[in-house]
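I hope you will forgive my troubling you with a question about protein structure. Here, with my thanks, is the record as I have it:
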Amino acid sequence: MAGLLNYECPCCGGKIEFDSTTQQMKCPYCDTEFEAEALKSFDDELKQTPPDDMKWDTKAGTEWQEGEQDNMKTYFCESCGGEIVTDMTTSASACPYCDNPIIMKGQLAGELRPDYVIPFKLDKKAAKEALSNHFKGKPLLPKLFKDENHIDEIKGVYVPVWLFDADVNARIRYKGEKIRRWEDRNYRYTEISYFALFRGGSIAFRQVPVDGSEKMDDTMMESIEPFHFKDAVDFQTAYLSGYLADKYDVDAETSIHRANQRIRQSTVDAFERTTSGYHNVHTAESSIQLSGGKAKYALYPVWLLNTTWNGKKFTFAMNGQTGKFVGDLPADKSAAFRWFGGIAGIAAAVTFALTFLFWLL
């Protein structure tokens, strides 16, 4: 029995002790009691959980074919360090990320050739219309912003993306809570029952994207997902005609950390959806075993729109395949005050009406 003294409470994490009065294992912090055999079974289950194993084969991209780079040139932004690739017929005067002037650097050399590209489906006109629609239905947006905000630049950019494929085998332990409340004439009671939930199984991930550009905001890039890989084709330089392509400056190895985060969270969420009948479910412990992990290099189509208002720059992004549009907007402080003041006034009026009704009754 002495060995059981090292157990942690599955409910609160406190150190469990043997209670001689009840002849049970008891947590002195939350007063939960356990049978010794139940704790032993729980501990045996935990010992079967192996550590994470998330290794990848990151040999993504291919070598450029002979003469394929001869018709391509690069531009360099001295402000943000962005390096843009395009064909000889496409000119660029401003960086699509920071809107500062860019200079001609020379012909493309080195780097890897993308494996895939998703061609643009939507044009510049669609991007302008999406920006206009983005302004609609936003009561806190300053009216002058709609009238005076002007577009400095609209650029179609192929953003470098690392795509991760893997099969995952996972074992996850959740802590479930069932809550029961009642009251009598003197007290209100709350009873919380804790449950150890074990889930295990396999799940496959295909084309999990991780932004390979330091200049492209990761949150913005993930906000315009999903991109539908069914439209992807083998890369050809012809797809760059009329567009810009960012050279990756975050390699596949560095992108593994974000890929693992996305896969882990998606796995935990997927398995958690199989739990039901609980008021709260929290992840207590997880083991992710990854097999067949491979990375590929692709270019995804994005329209970047840079605008200026009151001397401040605003950047918007649109998925060049689906049209999903994102971007931050300024807020009118006076309008916000009136808006929230109005809500508070309505709430106060409702409260007063209910109070008056109860008084009448």
